[in-house]
From TrEMBL:
Record's protein name: Transporter, major facilitator family
Source lineage: Bacteria, Thermotogati, Thermotogota, Thermotogae, Thermotogales
InterPro entries for the chain: MFS (IPR011701), MFS_trans_sf (IPR036259), Sugar_transport-like (IPR052528)
Molecular function, one GO term: transmembrane transporter activity
Transmembrane segments: 12-34, 40-59, 71-91, 97-117, 138-156, 162-184, 209-232, 244-263, 275-293, 299-323, 335-359, 371-395
Keywords annotated in UniProt: Membrane, Transmembrane, Transmembrane helix
Amino acid sequence: MTKNESLLIVEGIFSNFYFILTQGVVFTSIALFFNFNEVLLGITAAFPMVFQLLQIVTPSIIEKFKRRKRLLMLFNSFKLLWFVVVISIMLGKKSPMILIITFAVSQAFTSLAGNTWSSLVSDIIPSEKRGRYFGIRSVLISFSTLLIFYLFSYIIDNVPEPYNYIYVISITLIGTILGLISLIPVDDPPLKTLGTISELKEVFSEKNFLKLAFANMYWNFILLLTAPFFSYHQLKNLHIPMTYISYATIVMTLISMLFYFIWGKMSDKLGNKTVMISGILIVSFTPFIWILMNEKYWPFAMGLDAVISGIGWAAINLSLLILPMEAAKRISPMYFAVFGFFGGLGGLIGSISGGYFAAIFNKYNFYINNYHIFGIQIYFVIEGILRLLAIPIFASVKTQKYVSPTIFVFNVLNVISRRPTQKIYENAKIESAYILKKVPLKKERVKRWW
């Protein structure tokens, strides 16, 4: 592994402090401390997606600034604005607007940093190494998630308010500073292509890439409909301690670490679309499990959800990093900007509407033979159905290599049962004509895949 590859992993680990703080159950706990309701929580949860809309202007900024590494460090430094929240807590002020404004500003620049990071990394990491490299990087970041999330959960549960939140945010600020320092030695290669606004016409003329962009918009729309309310249900309705939630997260993270290796190797051989669709199929069943998440069965539901989520989300998180690189005809910041823009638009619509829907569903309670069902659990079941509908949308996108999950599973089962199988690579479709090139024939023994 090269110096740049190692440093980008270190930077990702330190940046993970901020992402754990601002997403999921940790942020929900802080939001409830600042007296958020369902609508405010839904709107605020939209910020990571909403500000992806700004990525459409990032290519122009990169073109004028030229130095992508310094630009990335500048954008990431705005995460340090969270010291305002620390001061607010110390002064005893818990106005929701303080948290909303701080999160909005820091997240706006974090979104600008995302496109800058993608542009820089695409020039540093060779295409043939991306699947394996991002698999390793994801494993190590997942391991840091395990440690950081448990630390934050332990502090929130065991340190009295408001000092628990002061400690958690302060640790995040230290991690952000270390992440900025780790970027200093990273090389900043010259731009291979410039992502100017004039390239928008070219990007929008590529129907295949637009299919992926629309798929990303739909995916973020349905995710943000319910994303903040899984942890909300655990904390607000069931009053599950943060430490117990952290145990489930640890299980999910350990499973993800294992499957990042598996999915990474599969993505290099079978294509990222295969991995993505397989992941969507798996995580589509997790919302149905949440029908068991009531006062009696939540330990079983949390454990089962952790196992399935660990397998499925490892596939999705890995694939979403690389799919835009595979679907685009060439690497340009404008492709990443359009991809992020559509994702942000979908997330914006999903989050705003999701908060109102969650508030409506959460008003109701059902009892079936003394089995308690919260109204919001019905909302989660609807989410599962919507996730399944994403499969044909992503399947319509053409990529460099694709093996149908049906064929893939069929071959795996045949291998397990020791029956003759199809040659799986004969079903790997090279779906983009522009990547075809002549390969000189070599007289050597054919290597069978089995």
